[in-house]
Specification:
Blueprint: H1 7-14, H2 27-35, E1 39-41, E2 49-51, H3 53-60, H4 73-76, H5 94-114, H6 125-129, H7 131-141, E3 156-159, E4 166-169, H8 173-185, E5 188-194, E6 201-207
Antiparallel strand pairs: 1-2, 3-4, 4-6, 5-6
Length: 210
């Protein structure tokens, strides 16, 4: 890529599916993104276009002047996995289950398309730049219950000072071990630790590379 994308191309990139990177635009816009290495055309029907890792980096870069509504995922209709403890969590129910399942299947497809060997059993580049959302999606898709309030039982996924690790907390010991098993099955390296001050157990999880 020798020059930045045009405003129209940037709008196409910014509107890509946040999980799969699937693009929608005119044939000319999509062809131009492919030419510049920011997108690729899937070889199988319906031959949709998806962001490449370079395209994802462009999308994740801070835009010069984003409109206010793009800063609120709920307003923009962007899927967000439950990380636990949200003040205004999405409504539970069959619709949410379908949405989470679709997002997880999309993430597996993104792994297949972007991991060099096409592996779906380990995290991809998108997950390494969205650690909390990626770990939370794996947990929610497996049916684990997120915390719904302060001190409530349920998992909470949070950032840590470590560059490629998230902390997962769950007051129930059996549920914490189940979260560890789920993340390991989803391709994460997981260790269980004890808070020195509170003696509470928690997990540190990092995306597995091999």
């Amino acid at each position: 890529m020798t020059r930045p994308p045009t405003a129209a191309q940037r709008r196409v990139i910014d509107s890509a599916d946040p999980v799969t990177g699937r693009l929608r635009g005119t044939e000319a816009q999509l062809a131009a993104l492919v030419k510049h290495g920011l997108a690729f055309r899937h070889p199988r029907p319906p031959h949709d276009h998806f962001l490449t890792p370079a395209g994802h980096r462009i999308r994740e870069a801070e835009p010069a002047a984003p409109p206010p509504e793009t800063e609120a995922p709920s307003a923009a209709g962007v899927f967000a996995a439950r990380i636990g403890g949200e003040e205004d969590p999405p409504a539970a129910g069959a619709a949410r289950v379908r949405e989470v399942h679709s997002a997880w299947q999309g993430l597996l497809e993104l792994r297949r398309m972007t991991n060099p060997d096409g592996a779906t059993n380990r995290p991809c580049g998108w997950e390494r730049t969205h650690l909390v959302q990626a770990a939370a999606l794996a947990l929610e898709a497996a049916g684990h219950r997120p915390a719904t309030g302060e001190g409530a039982e349920g998992y909470r996924v949070r950032v840590t000072p470590q560059p490629e690790a998230v902390a997962v907390r769950e007051p129930d010991a059996a549920a914490l071990r189940a979260c560890a098993a789920t993340l390991e099955g989803a391709g994460w390296q997981v260790g269980e630790y004890t808070e020195p001050r509170t003696r509470a157990r928690y997990l540190l999880a990092s995306p597995r590379r091999v």
